Amino acid sequence: MKEVKAIEQITVLELFGGIGAIRKALINQEIPYKVIDYIENDKNCVKSYNQLYGEDYKPQSVTDYHPPDEKINILMHGSPCQDFSRIGMKQGGEVGSGTRSSLLFETIRILKEMKEKPTWVIWENVKGVLDRNMRDSFFYYLKELEDLGYQNKFEILNAMDFGVAQKRERIFVVSGLKDNTFQFENLEKRQAPSIKEILETDVSEKYLVHQPSMLKLMDTNNDYRRDFKARVQIIDDFAYTISTKQMRIPNAGLVDLGNGKYRYLTEKECFLLMGFSDEDFKRLRDIYPEKEKTTSSILYKQAGNSIVVPVLESILKEIVKGEENESIKQD
């Protein structure tokens, strides 16, 4: 039986790179990698990315980007989700519509400009792309990839199935050039621990819920809560989907402190629930110092817009396994 060859190095292009979830996943899995380029127009995300990974990138829009003439194994793009989201504007992402989510098709343009296409293209977004009034854009994206020689596979994955105490469902599309050997059913999964393992105990009063309207929602004995369509969940063993505006829209839920008191998740807790580490958050605190009376909207936004790292880790492991098995066949 032939020995499985270890992959030498994965080259990556990060579009809509955010704070580098795929890079973090590669680091965690100790997969040799080289980032060919990182494109992100949010100056704060770029600042955080540089802080986390020791880089010196500048903000840049994908609309102005032209790919380098280098071999790329994986193109990762987590294009804006706001216009696909069920809690967003629902304006969709049709080509030429001018919505933020239509920037998805800049990835197609960039792929068309490449002399040598990446072996893999990974896209993550909200599951709302499959809603009736959104799905045309989604399947048009898949058709464009097929025309470029890719085979597409997609699945809705829940972060809780990958060892994260957050109920966060996202659609992942893994597109392989020519023969797509990737199998979602082979992804390595593990049970999520209780969120109590990461909840902070000594939390500032600035995280307490003070708004009377929010507190009324938490009272199960009044008509206001029963009649209100939106529901604010109580966090028990896991959080719900972390959003970008935790303090205004606590989609992730609230922590029950007892005696009618509740608090929001802290910025650190949100980062841990996205698969980043204590050390990562400490590095970010160096450039976004904690303020006594206010929370950081920047850090909440970055956590809410990121991709859950352990999910990407499992996807990358499956891709690498397939690449190594393919190298055996070619020997």
UniProtKB/TrEMBL annotation:
Keyword Methyltransferase attached: yes
UniProt xrefs under PANTHER family: TRNA (CYTOSINE(38)-C(5))-METHYLTRANSFERASE
Catalytic activity annotation: a 2'-deoxycytidine in DNA + S-adenosyl-L-methionine = a 5-methyl-2'-deoxycytidine in DNA + S-adenosyl-L-homocysteine + H(+)
UniProt keyword terms in alphabetical order: Methyltransferase, Restriction system, S-adenosyl-L-methionine, Transferase
EC number: 2.1.1.37
Designated name of the protein: Cytosine-specific methyltransferase
Family: Belongs to the class I-like SAM-binding methyltransferase superfamily. C5-methyltransferase family.
InterPro entries: C5-MTase, C5_DNA_meth_AS, C5_MeTfrase, C5_meth_CS, SAM-dependent_MTases_sf
Entry-linked Pfam families: DNA_methylase (PF00145)
Naturally occurring in which organism (per UniProt): Peptoclostridium acidaminophilum DSM 3953
Gene Ontology BP term (one): methylation
Highest rank taxon of the organism: Bacteria
Active site residues of this protein: 81
A GO MF term: DNA (cytosine-5-)-methyltransferase activity
